[in-house]
Amino acid sequence: MKFAKWLRTLLQQDELEIRRLLNDQTALHFLIAWSLFESKCFSGFIKIDRIEAFARNAVADGFDSGSIRDAATHFHARYQDGDRYRQLMHSQKCPRMDALLQRKVQTFSPEESLFFVTLIVYRFRNNMFHGNKKSSRGCSTRSRSVSIPMRWSSSSLMPRLDARAFQSGEWHRSQTRRGLTSVCSRRRPVRS
User: Fold this and answer.
1) What are the two backbone dihedrals, phi and then psi, of residue 104, each rounded to the nearest 5 degrees?
2) Which pLDDT does position 100 carry in this prediction?
3) Residue 155 has pLDDT above 70, yes or no
4) d(CA 166, CA 170)
5) How far apart are CA 123 and CA 78, in angstroms?
6) pLDDT of residue 21
7) Backbone dihedral region of 43: left (phi > 0), alpha (psi from -120 to 50 degrees) or beta?
8) Which pTM value belongs to this model?
9) pLDDT digits (tens, 9 = 90+) for 1-22
10) Cα 179 from Cα 173, distance rounded (Å)
11) In 12-156, which ranges are continuous DSSP H helix?
12) From the CB of residue 4, how many other CB atoms can be counted at a distance below 10 Å?
């Protein structure tokens, strides 16, 4: 119970909200799925410069990019907002991602769609588990309201912060996870 009290104070949330957060298994499910994905598809360590090769190989091995079309469309629209895009990327630079955001999502090749969605999930993962490290205490006023709840990844806090990103429900995440898992189980991991 000491952890719950500490977390409640840190996040400045009421007891009910913290109970919901700790009872929610979304972060645990994501952590397990991500660990398996990263292990099978990236030899245990994903780096941004390996995502392009992964996307190319996965599509060549039969990944159906149609399964992530709606997610790509949604995230393309979402990250037209420069502030949201900066929040997603923090200080990480990715000229390819910048260029894709300048194009219409309907013109993306299957490889580009998979690259785009995989990179966004990778950045979500980094933001969720590492947060914004700009302040000396690990969270500024701005990052406290964004990075810390995302770091804990509850369905009770995260949808309030990012409701539009997930308003279409669980389906695109589960379809993407199912599609990527089937591709990764059939092929060798991407290596540097």
Assistant:
1) -75, 135
2) 98
3) no
4) 7
5) 14
6) 81
7) left
8) 0.65
9) 688 899 888 888 888 888 888 8
10) 10
11) 15-23, 26-42, 51-60, 69-78, 82-89, 95-102, 110-130, 141-152
12) 13
